[in-house]
């Protein structure tokens, strides 16, 4: 593998696959490719692993078109064609649905993400894909944990391996150990075509998340390794030292 950034990312993805049992022999894995830096990174890392991993698995990409005509999938499709990666485009008309159904106090991008997930689940189960791979990276895991802790009074994050509420679809997040800086570097060095949403809600993905991001960046300067410590704390949960329901444990 010539690209040293991809080599590092692939090593971390391989470790996550082993630690959390994300991929098994014969799996059919669908990568949700939004056209952003993170989903491109995930797709390339899984493809690199597919070529050398001892387990065999199928891989394809799927993109949910959000609706606006400015969202042009062609650069993405051209690239995938050149790389020989199978790809499907699903038309979601997400922005129209959001405009018509958004309720006060709901973040449009969170709503959008639930809609996308529903479309992906239906497609994956109807076409026999076992797992949907999402491009959430290490910083997303940490930020989500802190967002819930600070603003929702709950200790809740993301998991790298989730059985969806429908009991059928499985979601995997193999970038759990990969930092956002790495996905940014990967996208820059490989010049993959980055697609924006071209929607009026762009930039509304959350001022709270941005606030957390800035605090974490500052903390990392003062306490090097703090992000890694927070991530690994999610595997070392001491229930006896949290508030119980009243019974001694
Ligand atoms: S900006 Fe938000 S609401 Fe609009 S398409 Fe993107 S994720 Fe969906």
Describe the structure.
- This protein is an alpha/beta fold and 249 residues long.
- The protein has one domain: 3-Layer(aba) Sandwich (Rossmann fold).
- A six-stranded mixed beta sheet has the order 3-2-1-4-6-5, with helices on both faces.
- Helix 3 links the parallel strand 2 and strand 3.
- The chain starts with a helix and ends in a 16-residue tail after the last helix.
- The model has no long low-confidence stretch (mean pLDDT 93).
- The protein binds iron/sulfur cluster.
- The site of iron/sulfur cluster (SF4) has 11 residues, from helix 4 and helix 5.
Topology record:
Layout: H1 4-20, E1 28-32, H2 37-52, E2 58-65, H3 74-83, E3 87-91, H4 94-101, H5 108-127, E4 131-133, H6 138-151, E5 161-163, E6 170-172, H7 180-190, H8 207-222, H9 226-233
Parallel strand pairs: 1-2, 1-4, 2-3, 4-6
Antiparallel strand pairs: 5-6
The site of iron/sulfur cluster (SF4) has 11 residues, from helix 4 and helix 5.
| The CATH H-level homologous superfamily | HUPs
Number of helices: 9
- Structural class, judged by helices and strands? alpha/beta
Please tell me the overall pLDDT: 93
Descriptors:
single chain; 249 residues; alpha/beta; Rossmann fold; 6-stranded mixed β-sheet; 6 strands; binds iron/sulfur cluster
């Amino acid at each position: 593998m010539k690209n040293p950034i991809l080599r590092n990312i692939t090593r971390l993805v391989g470790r996550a696959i082993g630690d959390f049992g994300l991929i098994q022999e014969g799996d059919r894995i669908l990568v949700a490719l939004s056209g952003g830096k993170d989903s491109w990174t995930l797709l390339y890392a899984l493809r690199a692993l597919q070529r050398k991993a001892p387990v065999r698995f199928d891989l394809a990409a799927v993109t949910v078109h959000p609706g606006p005509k400015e969202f042009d999938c062609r650069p993405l499709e051209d690239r995938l064609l050149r790389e020989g990666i199978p790809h499907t485009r699903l038309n979601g008309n997400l922005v129209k649905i959001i405009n018509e159904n958004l309720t006060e106090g709901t973040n449009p991008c969170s709503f959008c993400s639930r809609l996308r997930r529903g479309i992906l689940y239906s497609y994956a189960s109807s076409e026999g894909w076992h797992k949907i791979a999402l491009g959430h990276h290490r910083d997303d895991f940490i930020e989500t944990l802190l967002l819930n802790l600070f603003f929702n009074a709950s200790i809740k994050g993301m998991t790298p391996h989730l059985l969806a509420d429908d009991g059928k679809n499985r979601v995997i997040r193999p970038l759990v150990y990969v930092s956002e800086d790495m996905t940014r570097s990967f996208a820059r060095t490989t010049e993959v075509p980055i697609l924006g949403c071209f929607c009026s809600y762009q930039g509304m993905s959350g001022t709270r998340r941005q606030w957390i991001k800035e605090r974490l960046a500052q903390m990392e300067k003062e306490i090097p390794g703090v992000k890694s410590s927070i991530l690994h704390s999610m595997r070392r949960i001491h229930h006896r030292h949290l508030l119980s329901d009243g019974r001694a444990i």
